[in-house]
Amino acid sequence: MQQRIPEKTMLKGLTTHFALNRLITGMEAILDEDRVSWSMILERALSARSLTSLFPWSLAGLAVVQSLILLLASGLSESPSQRGWLALQGLVVLLFAVFNVYLTVWEHRLKEDEMRARCCHVLKRLKQVKEHIHWNPTNYPHLHTPMAASIVLQWTIRDKKQVNLPVSLLVESDLVFLKPGQAAPGRCHSFDDPKVKMEPGDILHVDTHHTTEISPTPEFKTPAKPQLFIMDETPYLAVLKMVLQRKERVQKSVLNKHTYLLFVQILSHFLFPLAFLITFIWSALRHNQGWSFYGAHDYIQLFLVQPVAVVLPLVSFAFPVCYVIVNYIGMAWILGVYSTSRHIRVNDDPFDDSVDKPELETTNRASFPKMKRFFMKSMFGTGEYLSRTENIVHTLGSITALCCTDKKGILSWPLASPEKIFILKKEKKSSTKKSLDESDYILTPEILTVTHDPHNPTSVEFDDPSWRKYLPFLKPLGLSILLNTCNIQTEEKYTNFFNHLTCESMKNEDSARSTHVHKNNVIDMLPIVTRGCLCEMSRKIGFDGKTSNQYSLSSQIQTFRHVQTDRHDRFAKNLMMAKLKFPFPHMVSVMTQDRSTGSRQLISQGTGDIVLDSCTDCWCGDDLEPLTESLRKTILDFYQRASLSSYATAFSYRPQTFPLPWKNCAEYLQLPTHSLPFYWQYNEETEGIDTDAITSHISIGGKQTSCFDKPKSEDNYVKTKEDAMHCLELQCNQTFLAMVQLQYQVMVEIVQLVDLLEKACIRFVHFSRENELRSSVFSEKMGLESGWNCHISLRSPNPSKPTTVSTKGDKLSEDDHSGLEKNNKIRGSLPDKLNRPIWFLDFPKWQETKGGLRAERRLSRAELIRSARSNSCENLEDSVESQGDASVTTDSDPFEYDMSNRAQLPRGIENIRPHLETMDNVPLLVSLFTDATAETTKEMVQIMQDYGEVICVMGSSANYKNIGTFIQSDASLAIEPRYPQLCQTVPVSIPPKVGPSPAAISQLLNSVASSLSFKMEDEISIYHLIMESRHYTMALINGLKFWACTLVSLSLLQLCSLFLTLPLFLTIGQVMWMSLLILPLLSLSLLGTKKDPNIMNISTGKNNILLNFDLLKYSLWCYGSRFLPTIVILIICHLLTTVSLIQTCPSNHVNHTDPIVLSSPSILMPLDNLEDLVYCSDDEIATDMVLPQLFNFAFTFLYMVVISLSFVSRTHQIWQKHPGQNPAWLVITSLLAIFMAIYVALYVGSSPGEYYAPVHVWIILMVGLLVVSLINEIVKRQEIKVEVRYQKRERLEFGTKLGINSPF
Description:
Blueprint: H1 7-10, H2 16-33, H3 38-45, H4 57-76, H5 80-112, H6 114-130, E1 153-158, E2 161-166, E3 175-178, E4 188-190, E5 197-198, E6 203-205, E7 219-221, E8 227-231, H7 235-243, H8 254-289, H9 299-311, H10 319-340, H11 368-379, H12 392-397, E9 401-404, E10 417-428, E11 441-453, E12 456-462, H13 471-485, H14 491-514, E13 525-526, H15 535-541, E14 551-561, H16 570-578, E15 582-583, E16 586-594, E17 600-606, H17 608-613, E18 615-619, E19 624-626, H18 629-645, E20 647-656, E21 668-671, H19 676-680, H20 702-707, H21 721-731, E22 734-743, H22 748-759, E23 763-767, H23 772-782, E24 791-793, E25 804-806, H24 861-872, H25 876-883, H26 888-891, H27 912-918, E26 928-930, H28 934-946, E27 951-956, H29 963-968, E28 971-976, H30 998-1006, E29 1012-1015, H31 1022-1059, H32 1068-1084, H33 1109-1142, H34 1178-1184, H35 1186-1208, H36 1223-1246, H37 1255-1295
Parallel strand pairs: 6-25, 9-23, 9-27, 13-15, 14-21, 18-22, 23-26, 24-26, 27-28, 28-29
Antiparallel strand pairs: 1-2, 1-3, 3-8, 4-5, 4-8, 7-21, 10-11, 10-22, 11-12, 14-16, 16-17, 17-20, 18-19, 20-22
Helix pairs in contact: 2-6, 2-7, 3-5, 4-5, 4-9, 8-9, 8-31, 9-31, 10-11, 10-31, 13-15, 31-32, 31-33, 32-35, 32-36, 33-35, 33-37, 35-36, 35-37
Region (Disordered): 793-827, 875-899
Protein name: Cation-transporting P-type ATPase C-terminal domain-containing protein
InterPro entries: ATPase_P-typ_cyto_dom_N, ATPase_P-typ_TM_dom_sf, TMEM94
C-alpha cells in the first residue's frame, strides 16, 4: 500500500529520493508477482512445434528408444565383449538424451525469465545509483526545451522546484502541470477539482472563453494556462507489465527456422522413421531369406544393433550444446563490435558516393577478457543483454528492414536550420521597358540559399561567394534575430503562447464536430513548436552576443488569428482536401529600447501571412519601398510554398515613440480571420513614408499619441476591445525585412547508412508522425524514394474522436459552436469586404514621396468603401470567377501537383491487410509511412513480420511510447537522441557532479526491452553491426547445412552396407565418435572464414522457408552431387575389402578352387555349391572387421575434410579463396587429423589380427579424393551461377514497386 501524502506537502511536490523509492517499490511488487509455472516451461520447452526447442520431446523419445534397444541387445547378446560395449553405448545415448533435455529446459527457463532478469538488472542498477543522486533543476532538461515527438517530458514539481521531468520517472502523487492540448501521461485528477479526472491519453482542453465564436473585431484573449494535476498512478509500471508479457515476443528468426528444419523436421521427424522402417523391413527380409554376404548374423544384430547403427546419426546429440555455445560466442562477438565500432565516415560530403563501400575492418577488436565477460553474461542470462527473447545476431544477420520511429535528434538534428532567406531588392529596368511616368527600377525577390555544416547544424555558410554584397539587406534581420528569436527572455512567454495555440487548434476540431461540420471542411492548424536558433546566422551577418546587451526588453505582444475555411479560397480548399496541417497564423512582437539613446523599436516575427498584413513597406537595403499588390502576392506565395514542406518565419520592424500602456501584456491579441482591413484602416491619413525610417526612428502620427496618452500601469487591468484596437494600431505600418525558410537537416551518418543499406537490399523504413508532404521532403533528404508507390499514410480516413477533458467539467459542453463557419453580423463602422479573401481586396496605392520615389495613387477611404459596397451587391461566386485570374493561388498555386498517392495505395492501418490479401504487396515495399502513431507503428511492424520481413527497430529511448514497438520487433535499438536546445548559447542541461542524470535514468528504464541502448553521441556503427551479424549468421547456416549433410551421409553409408548384406560400415562406437565430436567440430570450424567483400551487396531473403518441389530438387542436386560420390567410393571400397576378407576367414574351410557363390539378392546365381561355403561366426566377423572398419573410419573423416574445402567459401572457387584464409578450419582440421592418427595407431596396436588393404582399394581411395574435390568445385561453380541469378532477381524485386495500379 502506497504512503499517503499530506495535502500541505503536495504543494511542494515530492522529493527526488521519495519518488525514486516509490518507483523502486512499485517495480519490486510487479516483479514479485511475475512467475512462470514449471509446467508451462516444460510444455513450451519440449514442444515438437517450437522453433526454439533444441531437443523436443520427439527427439528425446527417439533417443530413449535407441538407448533401450542397445541395452536390450546387451542383455540378449551371448558375446561378453559385445555385451559390455552395447551396454556402455546405450548408457551414453541415454546420458546425452537426459543432458539435452536438461539443457533445453534450462535454456527455455532462462528465456522465459529473461525479461524479468532484465527488469531486475535495471532495478538493481537503479538501487545502486539512488543514493548518489542529488539533482537540482539545472540537471533536468531546460524547462522550455522545444517539444519533440522523440522526447517526452512533463512539467513536474520536484523538491519544491518546477522541473522538466522525463515521463518514465513520474510516480503516483506527483504534482504535474498539464499544458493545454497535452495528453495525460497517466491516470490523474485535478488539484483544484478532484472530480475532473483524466485517463492515459486523454487530452486536456482549457476553455477560457465560454464561447467558440470568433469576434469580428480584435480582442484580447485570456491565455490557456497549464493546470495542476495529481498523478493517480506510476505510468512506468504499466509499461513494465507490458514488457513482462511474453506472449508479444516470439523469436522466429531465420537461423532458428533453419535449425528446426534441418535437425528436427528433416533428420529426426522424416529421415529417422523412414530409415528405421526400411532397415527393419530389410532385416526381416534377410532373416527370412537367409541372405548374408559375410557371416550368418542372428536376430540381435539384424533387428536391434543394425537399425540403431543406421539411425543413430539422425538424432544429433551434439547439436543442442554446440548450438548454444556458438550462439553466445556470436553474441559476445557482436557485443565486442558494438563496444568498439564507430560511425562510418566515408567522406565529409554526405552526397559523395565515390567510395562504394567502407572498409570491412575499421575498428579495434574487443579484448579477450571483455569478450569472455560478454559470453558469460549472455550464457547465464544476467539481464544486462537480451540474448534469448531478442537475439541481435539472429535479427541483424537476416534483417530485411531497418525501421526508425523518431526523427528529431536521431535522423535529423534536433533543431531546424535555415535553408533560404527571402529578401527584396531593386533592379534597374531596361530602357525599352521604361516609360515616362515610371521609375527606373523595379523590386524583385532574391533568395539566398544557406548550407549548414553537416557535423554542426548551427554553423551555416552562404552558397553565394559574393553574399556580402547583401549585408545591407541582412543587417536588420540579424538584429531582429538577436532581440526576438534568440532572446532567452522571450522563451517563457512563447512557450505559454505555443500551448495556447495548441488549445486553439483543438478548438477548431471540436467546434467542427459539435456543429456537424465534415472533417474535410476544417483546416488542421499546426502551432510552431520553436522559432529555431539563428544565432549563427546573426553572427555571420555581423552581430555578436554583446550587441543584445545594448538593448532592454520592455514588453511583448502575442497575436494570432484563425483561418476561415472559405470554399472560394483555393489555397484553403486545397489544404482541406489534402488534409495538410498549416502553420497557425501568429506573430510575436517585442518592444525593445536602446540603452544609450532611449529609442524604442517594435520587432516582430511570425507566420508570413499575418506579418505581411501588418506591413506597408519593405526594406530594400538602402531605402524603404511600398509593398504593392504584386509584391504581396510574391511574398505570400513563397511563404505558402515553404510552409507546406518546411517552416517559414517572417520578420518585420517598426520604430516606436511610445511604450505599451501596460507594464505586462498577459493576454493574447486575437484578430478576426481577415485582419488586413483592420491594419489598413489606421493608414489612411499617412501620405507617404520616410525613407530613413530604419536609421532614424520616427513617430507614427498624432493619432497614435492620442491612443496612449492614458497609460494603465496595473497588470490585472481588464482590457477592452478598444484597448485591443489600440494595441493593433501599435502593430500596423511595419516594414517587411525578410523571410527565413527552415528545415530539419538529416545527419550525414544517416544518409550514408541509408545508401549502404540499400546496396545490401535492406529497406530503411521511416515511420513519420508528420503528414505525407513534409515526410516526403525529409525522406528525399535521407536518400529514400518519395515518388511512385513510395509512401502510405497510416492515419485512418475516419479517425475516432480523441477524448478531451475540460477544466470546466468532466466533458466538453455540447453547446459549443464553431465561429469559423458562421456568417457573423458585421457592424457598419467596420471595414467592408471582410468576408472576402484577402487577395481580392483593393490594396492601397502609394503617392509620390519627398525622395522622388513614385508610386501609384492609393484609393481613399471613401473610394474603398464605395467600391466594397458596390461589389457587395454582386454575386460572390461571379466575383470570384471574374477576378480569379488575378489571385495568387491561381497564378502560382503551391498545389500545382497532385498531392495524393497516384498508385491508390491503402490509407489507414486497417486497410493494409485487406490490400495485401486481395491486391498486391506494394505496402511491404515502401520506405515511408506517414501520420504514424505508436499504436499504428506497432501494428504495421507486426504486419510486416507476418509477411516474412525481419524487422529491427531503432527509436528514441526518451520516448516511453516506443517500448511497445520495441517489444513487437525482432530486435530493437534504443537510442538517446540529441536534445533540442532553446539556443546554442543555452545548454539543454548540466550533468550532475555525481551519479547519472535524469535523462540517463530515463534511458535505462525505457531501454528495458531493447537489444542495445546507446546515445547518438556514442557513434555506434549500425552498419558494422549488421555486417558482422550477417557474416556470422551466413557462416553458421553454411556450417549447419554441412553438418546435416554429413550426418545423412553417415546414415546412408550404414544403410548401403546393409543393403549389400555387408557388415556395418562403421561400428556404433565409431558412429558416436563421428557424430558427437568429429563432424560437429569440422562443421563449426567453417565459422572462422573471413568476411566476403561482397557480403553487404547481397540479399538474405525474407523470413520464409517454404519447402516446394523446386527447392527440394535443387537441394538434392546441390548437396547430393557433393556427397553421393563419396558414398559410392567408400561403399565400393568397403565391398572390395569385405571380399578380400572372405579369403582370410579363420575357418579356412572354403575351397578356393571352387567359385565363390554369394547368397545375396543382388547377385542372382544358383546355389549349387552351397555346401562348400563355410560362414564365419559372429566373433570371427567382429574380429576380422575391426581393422577394415577402422580403415573406413579414417577415410570417412578424410573425405569429409575434402568436401569441407568447398564449404570454406561458398562464393569463390578454391583457387580464388584458398582454405588458408580460414585459420579456424586449419587448426581444427589439423587437431582432428592428429586425433585420428593417434586413434588408429592405438587400435592397430591393440588389434590381435592383421589386415592389409588391397592395392586397388588404395588406388580407388586416393583417386577418389581428387575426383570428389573436382566434382565439388564443379558443383560450386554451377551453384555460384544459380546464386548470381537469384541475387539479380532479389535485387530487382527489392527495387521494384509495381502494383496492380501501376501504369506499366
